[in-house]
Write a structure and sequence with these properties.
2 domains; 46% helix; binds zinc ion; Reverse transcriptase zinc-binding domain-containing protein
């Protein structure tokens, strides 16, 4: 509270909790139990409730209103450090962007359907900066989260450019990101996913069904081993396979549409042969 709740995770519920405690007139005592102590039934119950909550599709509507007399605003000058002072700007009201919010919801829904987990938006933003991703993939994911690529509906309201929003390969289909990555008939797309699937099936029994939500959220892929513990190696393999495949499909699309505009379809098909060593590329990255 002295630091103005800057860089505090779950700031809103923590502020409401602090206000609740300040409203009490009696002394409040806390007892800290270690997770390994004999009397840890309460800790286990809390962990179980938290785990169940993270898997629910919707959250409860919890009142977080704070009475004005109990809400302290700003940070104490004596508590400021060089690390948190620049973060004061964070507290400005962020302007919501519907396209970004829709995409984040798509990713949350995709992750929930595939892995039975519902990550908060902050976790999704963190996942696209994973160290396993190249800078190029991070940039692609960031733009995708903001739906900021100049494709599909972007061209709809620009005079004389409306046809640029339609896929060159699939008559009448709007060329949005989901279409490009998952349903387009452009040569190369199906082959790339097939190779990625074959590589994955060499070490795993099943290949998760792909959706725009779970491929953009591949940084949050969650797999468990036979012992029920997280299988980190598999998660890394999947993260790299999906992100590299996704970016390769995007590159092929951009080469066709921007780099090689006007090229006959027969020649465009032959150019995809240049991407054939995908298995080699992915294998060298993953293993
Ligand atoms: Zn298409």
């Amino acid at each position: 509270e002295d630091k103005g709740w800057i860089r505090t995770a779950d700031r809103a519920p923590m502020q409401a909790l602090a206000a609740e405690l300040k409203a009490r007139t009696a002394t409040t005592l806390f007892v800290v139990h270690s997770a390994n102590s004999a009397n840890n039934a309460g800790c286990a119950g809390a962990s179980s409730l938290a785990r169940d909550g993270s898997r629910r599709a919707s959250s409860d509507d919890i009142g977080l209103e704070i009475p004005p007399e109990l809400e302290l605003k700003g940070a104490k000058l004596s508590s400021l450090t060089q690390a948190i002072t620049p973060r004061i700007r964070e507290k400005r009201v962020k302007v919501s962007r519907p396209a970004t919010e829709n995409r984040i919801e798509q990713v949350r829904s995709g992750i929930h359907q595939t892995y039975r987990q519902l990550p908060p938006p902050a976790q999704i933003w963190k996942s696209i900066r994973h160290k396993d991703f190249t800078r190029q993939i991070r940039n692609f994911l960031w733009k995708s989260m903001h739906n900021a690529h100049c494709i599909g509906k972007f061209w709809k309201h620009i005079p004389e450019c409306e046809e640029k929003g339609i896929c060159q390969f699939c008559p009448g289909e709007t060329e949005d990101l989901e279409h490009i990555l998952l349903t387009c008939q452009r040569p190369g797309r199906k082959m790339i996913w097939k190779l990625a699937e074959e590589l994955w099936l060499k070490k795993n029994p099943t290949w998760p069904e792909l959706s725009i939500g779970n491929i953009l959220g591949c940084g949050l892929a969650s797999f468990t081993g036979a012992d029920g513990k997280p299988f980190k190696g598999n998660e890394r393999l999947y993260r790299i396979l999906i992100s590299e495949s996704m970016c390769m499909i995007w590159k092929i699309r951009c080469d066709c549409v921007i780099g090689k505009a006007g090229e006959p379809l027969s020649q465009m098909r032959s150019t995809t042969a240049g991407y054939m060593p995908l298995t080699t590329v992915l294998t060298s990255i993953v293993f």
